[in-house]
Amino acid sequence: MKLFMKETSNSAGLPNISLRTATILVILASLCFSNSWDGEFVFDDSEAIVTNEDVRESSISDIFKNDFWGTKLNHAQSHKSYRPLTILTFRFQYAFRGNLLARDFHILNITLHVAVSVLSLYMYDLLLDQSAGNIPFYAAILFAVHPIHAEAVAGIVGRADILCAMFMWTSILLYHRSIYSISWFGKWTNMFFCIFCIAMAMLSKETGITAIGLCCIYDLVVVTRVLPMSTMSFFRPGYSLTKTRELFAAKYDHLILRQALLCTTAFLLLILRFSMMGFSAPVFQPVDNPASFAEKLVVRVLNYNYIYSLNAWLLLCPEWLCFDWAMGCVPLILGPDLRIFAILVLWVFLGSIFLHVISTENNARHTMMGLALMFIPFLPATNLFFNVGFVIAERTLYVPSAGFCLLIAIGLHRLTKYYSPKIVVSCFTALLVLFFTRSWVRSGEWNTEKTLFRSALNICPLNAKVHYNVAKNAADRGDFLHAELEYNEALRLNPDYAQAMNNLGNLLKDMRKYEEAERLLKRAVALQENFAAAWMNLGIVLAALSKYKESEESYLIALSHRPKYPDCFYNLGVLVRCSQIMNSYLEEKKYDKALMAWENATRQKTNHRRAWTNTILLLDDLGRREQALSVGNKALEYLPLEGSIYFYMANILGKAGKFEGAEQQFKNAILRDPENPTFYTNLGVLYHRWNKRAKAEEMYKKALKIQPGLKSASDNLDKLKNTVRKEKMV
Questions:
Q1: Assigned domain for 715 exists
Q2: What's the total number of domains in the chain?
Q3: What Å distances lie between residue 393 and 308, 377, 453, CA to CA?
């Protein structure tokens, strides 16, 4: 492999640079995304990492059965995104630190991007020949700083794209080694690891399988030099089929063998991939990708092409960057529209490049590889083979941008024939500085959800999902008024937005506006019958309105759509308990129904604190103290730091007259939560009953020190003092 071979003449071409210097500069340039190193978990990170049990609790085997979001692949609501290798990296990070620290995940993402940028240096060098000069360096450093990578690097779930690129570049390097290895052992060993890396790329993200296409094009164009002009000779008069066979036998026999092996690999990997999906496609909503749901073919084609032009513009001028491009961000073209000119410009430009490629014998190889590197990895996002669940997703351009950067570097190289290399390099340096700055600013916007969502309002003000996420973030911060306004704006832009209805209904429930919440939630489940979360929230609202029968039905419907739903089981148990206390429709002494619901909740989510504590309290109320203590001990196996469990067990032991055991459990509770005044108050009550008045007084005073206005501690302290005073008077 040549590494930045010097050109025979320095009169034209990009300036030479050593491999060592090139590597250092690429590493430094790729640090433009380090502004995100101390960011939080934002947007999709929450669902894919924070709440995904595959990252923390599930068995390793479950990772290979579930999709990227932790849902069973055969589930009706699964997105069918199968990326177990990416999830494994999240799992290993969690296992290593014993906690989910966003900073660790961001640092690894940045490190992986640095590695991919350096690998791209070698990959570009391999794809080109000696006449290319230092094009690989200029392409690699542009790839390192391109702002379109901000989502993939600064958004932790974007690791799937980075890992995919890393394995794709490695597979191309290994394919090259396989072709040029002298020994058969070396050829087949490198080919085996090439196929292995392609499989790893596909297990990182689905688009990894397109590495096979890149290897095929590389073999045809760079290695064997089967170019458009050279293939025309097969169609000349007098060129017989026999001569064609002889030519292939003499020149292309190894090529055919390698191509056959790659095609077989592609077939087997696709069969494996579709079998994991159960040979069924994911189901998306019209709001996810409106163009795919257009009735007329011409409308679909027109809008698909406009989306292609937007992707091309983002590569060329990455100023409009948004975390989500759905729900009105890109309105459909339904008739005469000025945006059609963007489509014409795109295809005129691509057509001119195509004419250049088919009419040029040698130099077109570089351009062909750039086009292949840009288009082949982008094919899965084109909607040509299957519908995708997005309009534009910037992280899907992480790999295709490598081809774009190569084409830009090739163009720079050719410009030096007409302009001074110093002028060309100066302009390129200014572009790098501009891209570096944009990447630094954009990666900083990914640090928090507030800054990320706010930044999108300027780009896509008509995107209902942007307003939805702004509202969700405001609600999380306790700004309910702003959240309500933004949810209503999301519903104004998209009146059938079931998720916004659910969240607004949930917000209104917390604000005790139960009738409004009921109306919204009923409309949400009418629009989306399998919306388990909305059914559960509707159950909570109906329970608050004392509609216990309807509430239970809502919970059961939620569980029918999502059998593994611990929070729903918990709320069902609360409903049963509440309805019996209120002497509602349920008969007396059916408390086991509540206990069973909470048992299901703790079975599905072993650290469900409220389900454990409610079980303990109910068993205590039923007089099943030994069973309550047994449940408490079991709960402590999963929640050893939860002071409330020790506290409830202490109360049970205290009521049973087991003062020593109760005292120890109160101390355990205080050890876990030393700032809880209730723990000190109840320990004081225990000492009071135990006739240890000095210790009781000490505990009451500690409770009042923490919370001076605590009435229970104050009253008990007064009673204690009155008792002591009366005894002294006697």
A1: no
A2: 1
A3: 12, 14, 15
